[in-house]
Amino acid sequence: MKVALASDHGGFGLKEFVKGLLTNMGLNVLDFGTYSEDSVDYPEFAVKVVKAVLSGEAQRGILICGTGIGMSIVANRFPGIRAALCHDTYTAKMSRLHNDANVLVMGGRVLSKEEAGEIVRVWFEEEFEGGRHARRLGKILEIEKAICEGGDP
Ligand code: RB5
C-alpha cells in the first residue's frame, strides 16, 4: 500500500517519526513535505496528499499540522476525501470501522510520538465494516454531488 504523507512546520517532527514507522510497517511512503521546521502554509500540503489519494497514486493519506484542525478543514473540502482528525486509538479505530476514513489527520503539538504511533498502527489494522455505515457514506456522496451541481443538499 502507498501512503501519501505531509505536514506543515507544526507537524514536521511528528511527520518524520511517522515516516519511519510506516516504512517499518512495510508501507510505501510518498513524502510530500514539508522538509524542515521553516514556517509554511498547511493548505498547500493538504492539497498534495488529497490529490495523491484522489488520483489513486496513494491508497491512503496522513496529514499533520499543529492541531490537525487546519489540515482537516482543507482535506474535507474535497469530494471523496474522508479525513479523520484522531486524538486517540478509539477515534482512529472508529474512523476506519464506521467512516472508512482515507486520510488520517493528527496534531503534532497535541500528541506524543508514542500516542501517534499507536494511532497509526490501529488505523492501518482496522477495516471498514460496511452495512449501515456504507449507507451513511452513500448519503455523504449524495450531499457532495448536490453541492457540486449547485443543488440543495
Ligand atoms: C501553524 O502555526 C498552525 O496554525 C498549524 O500547524 C495548524 O495547527 C493549523 O490548524
Q: What can you see in these coordinates?
A:
This protein has a single domain (2-128), classed as Ribose 5-phosphate Isomerase B, Chain: A, CATH 3.40.1400.10. Strand 1, helix 1 (12-24) and strand 2 form a beta-alpha-beta unit. It is of the alpha/beta class and 153 residues long. It contains six helices and five strands; from the N terminus they run βαβαβαβαβαα. It is globular and about 45 Å long. A five-stranded parallel β-sheet has the order 2-1-3-5-4, with helices on both faces. The protein starts with a strand and ends in a 5-residue tail after the last helix. The model has no long low-confidence stretch (mean pLDDT 98). Helix 1 (12-24) crosses helix 5 (113-125). 48% of the residues lie in helices and 16% in strands. Bound molecules: D-ribose. D-ribose binds at residues 8, 10, 42, 65-67, 69-70.
Q: How many β-strand stretches?
A: 5
The level-1 CATH class = Alpha Beta
Q: What profile does the largest beta sheet have?
A: 5 strands, parallel
> What's the shape?
globular
Low-confidence stretches: none
Structural class: alpha/beta
Helix content: 40-55%
- Mind telling me which CATH architecture this is? 3-Layer(aba) Sandwich
Topology record:
Blueprint: E1 2-7, H1 12-24, E2 28-31, H2 42-55, E3 60-65, H3 69-75, E4 83-85, H4 89-97, E5 103-107, H5 113-125, H6 132-148
Parallel strand pairs: 1-2, 1-3, 3-5, 4-5
The structure holds D-ribose (RB5).
D-ribose is lined by residues 8, 10, 42, 65-67, 69-70.
